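Hello Y.,

Per our agreement to keep a running log of every chain we model this quarter, I'm adding this entry. I've kept the format consistent with earlier entries: sequence first, then predicted structure.
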Amino acid sequence: MNNSIVSLSLIIAIILYAPQILPHLPGALYSQPIPVNSDLGTLKLLTDRAVQGFQNNSNVYSISQLHTGYDVLLKLAKSGEADKIPGGTNGVLFLLGDTIKLLTLNSTSAVRNVTVSYLNALEEQVTHLLALGNLHSKSNGTRSEALKQYVNGPYGIRVDYPLTWIIRIDSNYSLPSLLTYLHPRVIASFYLPNAIYGLPFFYIGVNSNLSKQFKQPHFTIEQYLNKSIESKKNSRSFPEFKLILIKHPDQANITLAGHPAYEIAWTYKHPQYGLREIMEFGTIVNGTQGYFLDYAASTSKFSKYLLLADVMKSSFAIIQGTVSLKRPTVNQNMSYTNSYS
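Predicted structure for the entry above:
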């Protein structure tokens, strides 16, 4: 039995048998708590905020959000609304409770890895409940999609995303450090899980310390573009890679978070999901830090989410200074082609 299996077994044992002694949490952890309604939309928002708390190195904040989500589920059960949802909510209730327990443990690498798995599983299950509850509106093939704000303070970025999409924590996610990352690091992912929707994904990534990585004091946007294309061509992640679009910053008025940016698009053949298309925007900040946004979907559904991808790209911002999660996310509305049609 290898070390990872042993670590996982120990964590599960702790979850099942350790006393449920949680730290005392005040009713209003922050000065402007979000209003709580007993519905699945609120549960999804609370789960999203718990994910952001974890990524912002604030487990106490995550626990407070999940405690409130636990109360939402209990109210749904007491009101009888949970009985109307196929499969009920008991599975999510237990998963939510176990995730809270994990967040109270000392954050060793083994505990952190399992916590990531639990938070990702909770996001998927809550989003599934939201879809089953049919809480999003539909009208004539379009819908009004509530956008929420995702904030990642350690990496200094924010973006608006649709509430019905899953936020996924990358398996190798970590807080920034003084170490140079030799490969692009995905710091935020948003997606719809079902293949019939074309598995649309929206990624936000960063390349740190480019000047050190490529041994020159500053890195230009053209160099970043060339490196990006080269890495895609040589990557095993993109079999049958085919570049279908390239826009240079000096040829097109493209910006990302207010900085000149490039745009590229390519197709590749996924071994399980077939032909997929990816559109990427990339920019350089201070000649040393690279940022990129990728939107991906099956070629047959790619155009379906282009408006949403453009809205998310336009909302992307690079944050300077200290970031706080104390304020509630801002509600916005948009309409685009129905993702479920």
